[in-house]
Structures are given as C-alpha cells and as structure tokens.
Structures
1.
Amino acid sequence: MHNVIERAAEAEAAVLGRHLGLLWALPGTRLGRDAWPQAMRHRMHAGWNYWWQAHLLDCLVDAQLRAPTPRRAGLVRGLARGVWLRNRMRWINNYYDDMAWLALALHRAAAVTGMNTRRAVRRLSAELWSAWSTTEGGGIRWRRGTEYKNAPANGPAAILHARLGERDRAAAIAEWMTERLVDPRTGLVFDGLAIYRDGRPAKLSRRIYTYCQGVYLGACVELWSAQEPKWCDRAVRTIDAVAEHLAPGGVLRGEGGGDGGLFPGILARYLADAAIRLPGEAAGTAANLVRTSAEACWHNAARVHGRPLFGPDWSQPLRIPFPEAARDLTVQLSGWMLLEAAARLDRAAR
C-alpha cells in the first residue's frame, strides 16, 4: 500500500526517467523532452515549449521540499541552465504567461536551493510590469503585439507580484480579473477579453478552463495573506464554483493533451495552497478535491515498466495502447503536480 508521499516519489521517478535529459549533450544541463516515447526531434528539443519547462522546474522544487537531496538541487540548477540556453541565452520570450510561470518557479527554486535567481526574476518581473495597459480598465496582455488579456497571463502575474512584495500591482491585476472575467452567476473565471484596435467593442471569451480557476484562486490566496478579507471571500467562491461545476464525482476534470494537459495540475497546486492557508469549510473542500483527484489519478494510471503513466482524464482508467495525449510531458507533469499537492497536504496535517 503506497502512502501519498511514496506516490509522489514514484511520480517523480516516472516523469524524470521518461522525459528528463541533457540539452544537446551539454554537461551540467537538463531539459524536459516533450513526449515519450521520444522521436529524434524530442531528444534534440527541436520543439520549444518554454512554459512546460517552467512547470517541470516547479515540480522539482515541490519534490525538493518533500525530500531534499543535493542531487535534486543540482537538477534544479541544471534545468534552469538548460532553459536559459535553449531560449537563446535569455530569460524572456513573447508570452507574458510563460514569463510569469518561469519567474514563479525560479523564485521558489531560489528559496529552496539557495541558487541566485534574483537577476532573472527581476528581468521577468519587469516584462510583466510593462505588459499592463489601461485599455478596458487595465490588466496585462497575453503576449506581445496583442491586446488580448486573459486569466492565464494575469493570474500567475498577480501571484508573482504578491510574492515579490509588489502588492499594489498584484491587487490591481486581481481586481481587474474579478471585474472583467469572473462570472457573477457561477463564480467561475472566464478565459479572457479580446480588445480590438479598430474600435469594435471588446469581446469576452466565455470558455471555462480549470487553469483559469487555479490562477485566480492562487492570486486571491496570496492577497488574503495581506489581511484583506474580501480576497478570502473570493477564494471561497472560486473553490465552491470548482466543486460544483468542474469536478464531477470530486475529481478535477481533464483538459486533454498539449498545453491543456497542465491545466488540472495547476488548479490542484493552488487548491492545495488554499487548503493549507484558508480558514473554515472552504479549506476542507479544497483539500477533498485534491485528495479525491489524487486517488483517482493514481488508481487509474497505467503501469509501464513498473512505473505509473498518467492519463489525461484522471477519472478514467488509462488503457494500453494508451492515447496520444498520454505521451505528452504536460499530462505526466500534471499527474506528478497533483500527487505532490496531495503529499503537501499530508505533511501539513502532521
């Protein structure tokens, strides 16, 4: 019988064993391969999914918090180095959500391993400051050259600003999300707002993703820690909305492969944060969502060479031959992220 700590360790071993490799055979580097089994293009990192690597880094930090070792601290450093090199020896790119995720991971990595990431985090934070515009009341852009403003960019940016002590900017971003993206009827967070330069009225994208709920929840929890009760109320509303609409049978819904593979894992991460830091019944609801999802994810995983392989839908058994989405690094990271979230709850309860 595996306990939640052992499950997280097995998930780590499975993901790293299948996906982690050197960048172009360069010593002292690491990078996650996009898929498994790998074609040559995956082994050579011909495709570049910057934000997937940020979440791999975040998962390694989770694991280091769970069971610190010098070897894993070295992997954290090697992965950060690999990202920088593969990204043409710079930290920035054209997507503000990507940069927010990498800054969050590097900021956590510094706290856990002692590595010096101040310059990188400062550079990335400056990019996020520059992404703010006053059109439609504020908010930051999703990427350069567009006025589309969405939850996937604004949420992690708000979390980062709050953790860096830039509370006013964090609150301004989260207030904009509350006013423009939160559905007053259900409490769910819509994807984003399309803003047109030709004078047409802005158009709300009403798509609902688990990702958007997670990052808004994370921002609310960070801001509530600054002792403003309205943020706690908003976090509670989001947790209740997720439980009612996005977790059939108590299991967070899947979002397929590719980028979507990461979405439920991101929500699980911030539900665990909420469960540990919020008061009252909502904390229990958040914890139950994480634990129920983790049980389903673990028991519905396939075993390949003795290690778990997670499916894109945690509520359904993964059958072999497994679907294409199960090959993706994102899907496997999401399962690992979920199991680390459950392990974190277990440690907090002791």
2.
Amino acid sequence: MQKRNSICKTREPGIKKINLEVKIGDINFKNPVMNASGTFDFFEYMDFFNVNEMGAFIHKSITLKERKGNPPPRIAEVLGGMINSIGIQNEGVDKFSSFWQENKDFIKTNFIVSIAGTSYAEYEEIVEKLESNSFFSGYEINISCPNIEKGGRSFGQSPKDTYEVVKRIKNKTRKTVIVKLSPFVTDITEIAKKSKEAGADAITVANTIPAIKINLKTKKPSLGNIIGGLSGPVTKPIIMKLIYEIIKKNIKIPIIACGGITNTEDALEYLALGASAVQIGTANFINPLVIKEVIEGLETYLLQQKIYDIMEFIGILKI
C-alpha cells in the first residue's frame, strides 16, 4: 500500500496534459490500462469507478456452447497470489451476443472479446457469430485451451497449432486479433513468432501458470479440479522475464503485459521494459479501484519525469 501511495496525484498548474494514448492493431486506446479477462465484471465495477476510463474492457472467455465450469472449490489463496480453476464458465456465444446487443450503449471504451475453443472449427464459428456485432473492437484468443483434435494438448503449447488457429481467425475477421500466450511452454518466443507470422496484431503475455495447492486439514487438493492457474504478484518476475525474451529475439509485435500488476510502479516496469499496454487481474479482487489508480498514477509519474507522451516512455529501459 505504501508503494502505491508514493506517487503524488497532484498536477502543477500550467502543465500540459499527458498523452496516454497507444495504438494496437486498428484500436486506439485512450490509455494503456485494461482488465485481464475473467477478473472484471463491467457492471459490478461501475459501482466503484467509471469503467469507461479504461483503455479497453476485456470480457471473460466465451465458448461456442454454454459451459458450467469446474467443480468447486474454484479458488485457493497462496502466498503472493491465488490459484483459480473456474473452467471458463460462461453462457455461450449466442446468449452473450444477445445480452450485449441490448446493453451495448453502456460501453464507451474499446470492447475486446476473449474467445476459447477446443477445435479450429469452434474458434472459427465463434468469430463468425460475433462478426455482426460492430461495437466489438477486437478479439483476444485464449489458446490455453485443450485441442481435442490433437490429444488434449493446449493450442498454446504448439507453435504449429498456434499458427493455425490464429490464421483461421484472421481469415474470418478484419478486427484486431490479440493472442493470449501460455507461460507454460518450452520456448515462448517460438509461440510469439508464429502468432505474428499468422497475422496477430498483438500478444498478451501471459495467461496463468499451472499450479496446485494442498489442504492439510482435509488431506485433499484445495481445488475441485486439482490443478488451477496461478496469478498475482508472485508471477510478475516470471512474466517480465518472458516478455524480455520476446523483445530480445527482436520479434516486432505489440505486447500487452499481464501478470502481477498491483500498482502504478508495476505497470511502469512493464511499460519501461517494452510492453505497449498492461492488463490488471487479481488485484481487482483486492482493490476494486486499482485500475483507476494506475491510470492516474501513470499520468502523474510522466508529469514528474517531464515526459508528455507515453510512447516516449515505452521501452525506455536501458540494458
């Protein structure tokens, strides 16, 4: 908490406004801060701040058909983070489209839809169904799902499968396509490279890290599905290292950093490293105002540094 409050929020009189705008694909973001998929309900968080202040709202992953999700318990707290095993519970693409068609006027920022499938055809069909919704800005492809056509290995663990699913989706849409990479791979640079070759406009680095927790009172796993995804501050150094590897390989594709951001300084570190934008996930459950605070904190920090355009700060890290 002390770290977050270390950045003063007052602006000196007469100082010109900071430009926080970034562009990824065909999307112009008013600022580089957005939520991570599955961690933020648009209408619930409206009670805390104007959620349209975000650079984008990313909806939780949608599948072709309704999914009930994994058995409970679904969340386990660990030191420095949490493990979740929600299982992509959602109402399916048709009900999703119907709901947002009726409520689209509430969205005054970019709306990015996360999509998940278990086959190439499912991804394609989801996009086909969503394409008529002109108020969506783009797609974030969740490739951490099991590929039932390839024995259950996730799309994101195979450069070839990643290329194929991204290519097929790009053939179905002119909207911006972002690929959310899995950190649980041998070489993430190969996945990033194939995403770019297939036409991805950007990559999100990264999804949660597979993990397990044991409940010693019950002598059973803490999660009903046994394995879940680790997120939170503990993952930040790992995700930063993955982003560094991609940048070091000179793979020229915008990166959206996702992992362990709890305050302005965390976001600034990712941006200094070279990320074009950031997603905030687990911290939303701890502090529902964190996204608003980070947006304000970025502006204040840049003012203090006399940097008036965030593009001058992105990638400023000296190595």
3.
Amino acid sequence: MSGFSVWLSAVRPKTLGLSVSPVLLGSCLAWSEQGELHVLPALAALLAAICIQIGTNLHNDAVDTLKGTDTDDRLGPPRATAQGWLTPASVQRGAAMAFGCAFALGIYLVMVGGWPILLLGLVSLVAGAAYSGGPRPISASPLGELFVFVFFGLGATVGSYYLQTDQISMPALLSGSMLGFIAAAVLVVNNYRDMQTDAVAGRRTLAVLLPPRASQWEYALLLLAPFLLLWLLWATGVVSWWPLMLVVVVIYLILQMFTLPVGTVLNQLLAGTARFQLLFSLVFSAALFL
C-alpha cells in the first residue's frame, strides 16, 4: 500500500459522514429559519468536526494497538498501526496534527460564536482524546453510546445551529438528538461485532455486559427513535412529511442486525448504518426547504 492509501485507511473515511451530517443539518435548519446562511462559519465548523473525528480515529488506532486491543482475532477492518503499516508514534503525531487543526479553526469559530462555542470546542477536543486514551477510556466503558450521541449528534448539530443564529431552539435539540441516536447505533454494531474480543481484552462495553439480544434491540430502538422526533417536527410544521419514508431503510437495517451472524459480515452493516446517518441528514435538510 502507498503512503497515501495507508493514511487514508487510518483516518477511516467511511465514518467521516458522522461528522459531516450534524454540521450540515444544523446549518440547514438555521438557514431555513432565517433565510440566509453564513458560509464561512458553516465551512469552518464542518472542517473542525472532520478534524476532531480524524484525530479521534487516529488516536484510537494507535492506542488500541499499544494496549493490545487490536489483535489477529480482530473482526473489523485492518488498522494501520496493528498491521505495521505505520508506527504508533507517527499515528499519534497525525492525531495531534488533526486536533491542532481543529483547535486553529476553533479560534475563528469562537470569534464568531463566543464562549459557548469555546466551551463546546474544548470539551470536544478533550473528549476526542479521552475516547481511547487515559486509564479509563470511554471506548472501553458502557458510556460509548452516550459519548457518540452527545458529540456526533447533539453537540455538533446544536453548535452549528448556534453559530448561525446565536441561540438554541427546540427543533435544533430534536434534530441533534435524531443524528445522535443514529451515530450511537453505528457504535452498537461495532461493539456487538467485537464483543468477544473486547471481553478478552478487558473492555466493558454495553455489548460485553449485556446479552447479545440486548444489543440487537438497542440498535433497533436507536434507529427507530429519530422517527418519533421527526414526527413531532412534522406535526409542528418544521419539516415536510416525506423524510418519514426513510423508515423503510431502517427496517431493512434492523432485520440485518437480527439475522446476520457475528463476524466480518457486520462490517457491511456498520458502514451501511453510517451511510444512513448521512442519507437521513441530506433528506431531512432538503425537506426543510421543500
């Protein structure tokens, strides 16, 4: 593999839609309400969110290898550090660069949005590093789904909305919660796939602590919950009704979760769930204007 291909694999491009979706939806929701879009803050927020996720992914890649979590028994896609394509030190430097870029973009965003954006940015940076690092990493605890819900759904959506409007609204909170639920569902698939190797490594995710059937139902509830919130926004005239038709896609994903065996085949479901979050954000954003 070329150097570019290795680094591209390390940043996990298939998951980057999780950072794009909330910024897109939060910005479009504000645009639909006030009739204008502040382009530079929206682009800066988008790039900062992507940088934070890249930094988190790279940090996770290096730390899991150093801790012995990623072994030859891993069912997920190969990791650059574990495969020996990159050294842990170089991946850690890559993570630091990504977090540094996010911090630099954050300076501009703080100038636009003030102290609430400063607080959100600092917490996001610390949480991104703590997800895999430290003596008690979030990724190895039952709090992983909550982390993803807050930072890859609620926080990013509401923060993007605030940058455009200087306020927080109930539609923004509900919209962020929708994307947070779907992002958490992506993690559920990841942890469900890895529950046996995680247990051996001493990780205590919900998938490890609960019966396998519980993870399947958790996934189903997380994907169905956004449609209840979507119905509320439609009933109050915020958005058109037709994004509700996406429930057909959700039913298909849920059936896969309940029928596919635990193994590498779940990698397809994980990628499909991540793509669904981006699809949901795109369709919802379009429905705000149609």
4.
Amino acid sequence: MTEYSSPLPRSPLLSVLRQIGNTAVTLLVTFIGLLAVTFIISRVVPIDPVTSILGERATNAQIEQTREALGLNDPLWQQFAIYLGDTLTGDLGTSIRTREPVLQEVARRFPATLELATLATVLGVLLGVPAGVIAATKPGSWFDQITRLIGLMGYSMPIFWLGLMGLLLFYGHLGWVGGPGRLDAVYQMSYDFDITPYSGMILLDTALNGRWDMFANAFSHIILPAGLLAYISMAYISRMTRSFMMNELGQEYITTARVKGMPEYRVIWVHALKNVMVPLITVVALSYAYLLEGAVLTETIFAWPGLGSYITDALMVADMPAVLGGTVVVGAAYIGLNMLSDLLYRLVDPRARV
C-alpha cells in the first residue's frame, strides 16, 4: 500500500522573502534599464563632452587625448559597462561647470527637494483623502461638485502660473509668506555657521537645534511652494480616493454592515477606508515620486536650491554629467518608492503575501 504524504505548508516568512527577492531583482533590472536610457541619451544629444570640457579653441591633439582619457574611443558596450560599474559604485561623474563630483553636488541639493516634496505630500494626503471620502459618500452634492472642480483645476492650471500668481499675491501684496529661497539672507548666514546640519532639511535641522526663530522663517519660505505642490497632489489623491471609495461603498460587506446597524462613521471610516488604503498606498507613492521629479518649475520660480533647479541649471550650460547624474538619482528615488509601496501593500493586504 502506497502512502502519500501531504505537502508541507509554505512558510509565510519564506513566501514574503521570496516575493521581496523577486521585487528586488525586478527593480535592479529596471534600474539598469534606466542607466541604459541615460547612457543612450548622453551619446545621441548634439553636445560633444570633449568640447564642453576643453572649449571650442582646443587643438585636435588635445581633443583626441581627452577622448582617449574619457574612454570615448572604446566600443559602446565597453563604455556602457564602465558607466554601469561607476554608477553602481556611486561615481556619477564630474560636473563640467564646477569640476566637483556630481554625487556630492546632488547630495547637497537633494535634501531641499526632499523637504519640499515631503511637506507637499503630507499636506496633499491630509486634505485629499478626507475630501475624497466625503465626496464619495455624498455623490452629486455641492461638496462633491466642489471637490471635483478643485481637482479639475489642479490638473488644468500650469504650475508656473500658479507659482507666479502666488508670489505676486501672498508675498508681493499681502506679505504673508517669505520670498524666494529657503531662508532670508541673515538667517542663511546663521544657518551656514551656527546650525548643525543633521539632515540638510532646514525645518528639521532648526527644530533639532532649538532655533525656532529660524524655523519660523524657513516655514514662511516653504509654505507657498509646498502648498502649490500639495494642491497638485491633493487633486490627484482626492480624485482617486473618491473613485476607490465609491467602488467599496457598493460592495456587499458594506450593505451587510449597515443592515446589522453598524454606525455609519464606522462603515465609512473604518471598514471601507481600510480596504481603500490598499490601492491608495500606490497612489500616494506615485504622487510623492512625481513631486520629487516634477518640481523643476516650482524650484525655478521660487529659487529653491533643490535637485530640479540643479538639473535645469546644468542643462542650460550643457553640463551633461550633472544632468544625467541628477536624472539617475531621481529615477533611483522613483524606483525606491515603488519598492516601498509594494512592501507596504503586502503588509496592509494579507492576500498579497500568498
């Protein structure tokens, strides 16, 4: 008589680790693809890196010597292999404009963009999620119409126009907020010499150093650009939250909860919103990634010394190592946020762990 043994149950931990490993491999392949795209761009743009370095008066001997030193005479596959190895080890090249390593310059600029995008995303979530939930519970009401109108305006209005109008009204005429930049000039000097820069994010650093006067000044400078980006984020988040909630409110478990006499606020804000949070995590992560990579115009208008303005300034002077290095960092942040959202998705939804 043949005995059959039932298969051993799969360990939840091993399943999660396997999925994390698969996700990491996918993201690594995606990152290599990003590097391939940036490498191709660096080779097809009508800008000669040697001319950018030496100038137009360089002799043919100097040009050939520099091309040999940069490896531009090697086969393309070999150039890409070197580029891939340098990038994976943290070498993003040297800026033609400043002659400094691009990674160091990006490290100085990125905290400003991170601070701006983080505050904007927090404000967008705090305003967008409740607005979307309330609009979904009262479809066709005046609140729903206003929420949809605000969302449509957020999609339609150019961010540079909103920034200019905001500066003209709230800074120029009313004086409610600080002007361009992260700090007033007197506070900027004090920040450079008296503040211990734990993170490079001024709000956090000034709070940790107990300089609340400087914190207030920094907040007056960041609130307008962060508010404008939060408006764009809120328009997207509120629209998606409304769509997700309307779908959940039509499910049978919601009807059953209401029939059993469960309070309406628990039906909406506990049961329905809990299931909405699963896809909403991805929405918030994508919105955050968009602000990290899409704040170029906002940083330019408000003279915000972040990564977006760094890439823009480098592009204006054909500093391609700086442009490509900044692009790689933004792409890496986007990929990292996608991986984080995937991990949070698996934590929130047990079905995704199978």
